[in-house]
Recover the amino acids of this structure.
């Protein structure tokens, strides 16, 4: 075969992939520092608890009781098994779960936020990522990317008393790079693994997997009381947030593609691919509000997020040294959007008021929402 024919065959095969990467990377380029066009679709916002909360990636709402549950990992500065930062030291801060009563107006403001106390659980190696809360069953599930290995923790959770009684730790070969959980009751869950190559194994290969858009992440079903029931249902690139739009449709975010994949869930807990929504920004986590709208948060400029993650390894809070203080900064923009089949994609926010947004959740009836972040202080609370 003539060499030119070979080249042609190669480009024909690679063209869709090149086009796809071109699309993904050109969006990142458009949001580079100095050229990001801000979007502000809220009525107002405030950033609360900057003195108490840091690196709170996840926020889950119990709209009925007006309660938000937060997963915070200040230790992510030194230990980030998703992005590949492994500099644990003796003073590494412990992860924590918080309960925020955002709707009980009779509670004094200073007492609305409480750190959850654990019973029967040693939080010495606690690095929480995705959490899931099932208020009807008082169950709290936490992905713990512990130094000793990634596991899923189950707690019996009393939100009103902000205490969590440990039930058990689940380890399994299919829990290898766990990121987000969606529970469907009775300890049955869907969860994502973000990469095929864990950053713990090779940070470089894991990053190549991300930027090449290789579908190495996975969606797994597991009955936590029968871990052998676990099965891999789908493979997508940098699988991240996961949630159900209604009783049949599962949505899974891909941070690298970027976009959101929709599947039909069969009674056997298998997935049938339905469609794919391309997003202008790499989506991190997703949530579904009580109106059935899909909410997405993400990172408009992935490169600045990587910079923040790498700099944080050298961060010393309250340090005298200028470079150690600077390493604690956060300069990665945030993005939030909503989607429904009827109205399509609507961007709600893009800007720098808060850094590195990871989750947006909304109490549709009360007209209040929350944006949590990978690396900033506090919690953004917006009104609509
Ligand atoms: C994202 O949010 C959902 C709830 O919408 C939660 O179940 C999941 O664990 C979250 N986590 C991450 C880190 O993506
Ligand atoms: C669930 O949501 C999807 C996406 O909006 C929609 O296509 C589907 O018809 C909905 N199914 C039910 C049972 O409401």
């Amino acid at each position: 075969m003539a060499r030119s024919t070979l080249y042609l065959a190669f480009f024909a095969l690679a063209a869709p992939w090149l086009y796809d990467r071109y699309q993904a990377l050109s969006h990142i380029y458009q949001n580079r520092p100095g050229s990001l066009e801000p979007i502000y679709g809220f009525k107002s916002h405030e950033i609360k608890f900057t003195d108490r909360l840091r690196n709170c990636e996840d926020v889950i709402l119990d709209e009925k009781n007006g309660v938000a549950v937060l997963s915070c990992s200040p230790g992510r500065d030194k230990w980030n098994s998703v992005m590949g930062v492994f500099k644990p030291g003796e003073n590494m801060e412990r992860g924590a779960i918080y309960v925020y009563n955002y709707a009980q107006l009779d509670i004094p403001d200073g007492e609305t936020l409480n750190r959850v106390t654990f019973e029967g659980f040693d939080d010495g190696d606690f690095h929480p990522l995705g959490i899931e809360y099932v208020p009807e069953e008082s169950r709290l599930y936490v992905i713990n990317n512990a130094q000793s290995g990634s596991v899923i923790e189950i707690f019996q959770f009393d939100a009103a008393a902000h205490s969590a009684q440990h039930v058990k730790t689940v380890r399994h070969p299919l829990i290898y790079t766990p990121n987000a959980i969606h529970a469907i009751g009775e300890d049955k869950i869907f969860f994502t693994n973000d990469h095929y190559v864990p950053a713990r194994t090779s940070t470089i290969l894991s990053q190549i997997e991300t930027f090449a858009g290789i579908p190495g992440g996975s969606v797994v079903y597991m009955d936590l009381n029968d871990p052998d029931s676990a099965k891999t249902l789908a493979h997508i690139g940098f699988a991240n947030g996961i949630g159900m739009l209604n009783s049949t449709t599962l949505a899974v975010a891909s941070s690298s593609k970027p976009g959101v994949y929709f599947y039909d869930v069969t009674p056997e807990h298998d997935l049938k691919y339905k469609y794919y929504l391309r997003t202008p920004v790499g989506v991190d986590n997703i949530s579904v509000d009580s109106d059935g709208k899909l909410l997405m948060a993400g990172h408009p400029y992935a490169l600045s997020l990587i910079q923040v993650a790498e700099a944080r390894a050298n961060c010393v809070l309250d340090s005298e040294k200028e470079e150690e203080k600077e390493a604690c900064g956060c300069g990665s923009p945030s993005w939030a959007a909503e989607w429904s089949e009827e109205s399509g994609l609507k961007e709600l926010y893009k800007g720098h008021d808060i850094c590195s947004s990871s989750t947006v959740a909304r109490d549709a009836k009360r007209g209040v929402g929350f944006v949590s972040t990978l690396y900033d202080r506090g919690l953004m609370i917006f009104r609509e």
User: Anything to note?
Assistant: The radius of gyration is 20 Å. The longest strand covers residues 226-236. DSSP finds four helices and 28 strands in the chain.
